[in-house]
Amino acid sequence: MYVAVKGGERAILNSHKLLDEERRGDPRVPTLGLNQIEQQLGRAVDRVMTEGALYDRHLAALAIKQAQGDLVEAIFLLRAYRTTLPRFGYGVAIDTAAMAIRRRISATFKDLPGGQVLGATFDYTHRLLDFSLAGEHDSPPAAAVGPAPLDAAMPRVVDLLNLEGLIEEERPDPAKDRVSDLTREPLGFPAPRDMRLQNLARGDEGFLLGLGYSTQRGYGRNHPFAGEIRVGEVAVAFVPEELGFAIEIGEVTLTECQMINQFKGSKSHPPQFTRGYGLAFGHSERKTMAMALVDRALRGQELGEDGEAPAQDAEFVLYHSDNVEASGFVQHLKLPHYVDFQSELVMVRAMRAAQGEAAADD
Amino acid sequence: MTDESDTAGENGYNFAYLDEQTKRMIRRAILKAVAVPGYQVPFGSREMPLPYGWGTGGIQVTAALIGPDDVLKVIDQGADDTTNAVSIRRFFERTAAIATTTRTVEATIIQTRHRIPETPLAPGQILVYQVPQPEPLRRLVASEVETRTMHALEEYGVMHVRLYEDIARHGRIATAYDYPVKVNGRYVMAPSPIPKFDNPKMDRNPALQLFGAGREKRIYAVPPHTSVKSLDFDDHPFEIERWNESCALCGATETFLDEVLTDDAGGRLFVCSDSDYCHERRVVEDD
Fold first, then answer.
1. What sign does the dihedral A65-A332-A315-B38 (CA atoms) show?
2. Residue B27: pLDDT above 60?
3. Which ipTM was obtained for this model?
4. Residue ranges of the domains in chain A?
5. Which of A274, A281, B60, B189 could join A263 in a cystine, given CB atoms 3.0 to 4.6 angstroms apart?
């Protein structure tokens, strides 16, 4: 006899206990400290902070530990926490020209004021597994460090190009009295650039990487150059209403990418270089480069370019970039669909019966 | 700036999880939705601690409305004991410490996924639907810019063409769930993936029907006693599913039945998808 699927509540509680057990793994292995994640899995922490849209290395490390290293799950944990936080107001726009540089490279000029600063990078490493890391001993020798501090003036490459008027100027939209806030207002279309950039900054790195790559392979080609990538610390300032002037409240590590794109000009715009912009928390070069490519692709309409490549379709890109949304909806297919499926069964059977009758009539 | 009206629960979260500012924002969207039946109101949907696609729209609507005296019922596929219904009910028990029930008649708010209870709803009750895709035209037109314009102009020709093509190809309208309806003679609306069996229950229902789509950031509503008409043609009138079988547990013949496979040789039986309705019928029989 049929037994209804009861006891869901107990099953769920037990499932969560099992999940916890799996997360801990073999209890003879020491538990992972958050400081270990923060220090030794820094790039994972950076990604979770960026797509989780919350700058807190400690909480990101906690999310990674709780999610058993599933970064999309960790991003979701951080987002769900962030949304409960009170909103004090909006900070003063950060100034990346005043960044304390750790790394700064330009692919468009051999040398430039402030110089090329290679910093720490996976680039040029030979991807050979380093078996020495498998052991307990992991104390690399200290790297030789150049003169500190670096050149005080580290102007952005795009600002240098700007002197000649060769690159479009970017100014705040005078019609807007405040910046949009994707976390408070629903996305609307046409989406203004600040909204698009917020969406891309939180967007899934893999999704943006694939889209950015598609523009390089001809789907919305816009001929990019990595004008500049810089990584370092930037001060964050806030103007409390009761004081009326800005005070520094901390600093964040950021990666910024300015793509420079060829542009032959259109009826409305002279021939000049155009820009794509990428910004992320922590050290996230791949993410910011992909973001900058997609940002530029999404500006096609505004610049009078025609094109219908996926990366140029704002609705397609912005509605599908968020991995918290995408992961939830793809995985909701695990929920019961007995009722819809039953409706379909009834319909398909009726249609087959009708077809059978029709065939019998012939 | 903390809001003084926030009533922090024991676990550090506000009553029913959302902060009062957010609840107010959602209530404003609900009021607008009630004022324009069937119109999709964009709202600043929040990340919830449950995944998008798992009822976050319905949860936000419920959280914005629920008070300490409310009695909540949560169903998924018509049943109170499906895992996600259990999970959502537990969420509100934890965050709002409200009373819950499985009995349709006792509930002041019923959050549902994919069904409308068989027991007729009463004035004063609120039915909150979880909606995966609020846009009934989405499968026909991918662009939100275009579909919003189509709604504004009441331009629903493509939908009628699609239904007509179904008839031309299959001899019938081949939509079994999320069957499009017209609300108050104006907006074409997605009733959420309820079986079309439930569509007639929406029409002039004395309860307030609210629809929350969290991922898509839309809220819409059917106020009490509002006309809800399933789209059809004069020569192909709207029809609901029927079964030759009756419920194996309570013997009901007029309910939506779920099919259960009992062996691997084609054995199957049918039971009410509405677990409360089925249970109540059996209790009455036993007395």
1. negative
2. yes
3. 0.87
4. 9-82, 96-120+150-170+183-318, 332-361
5. A274
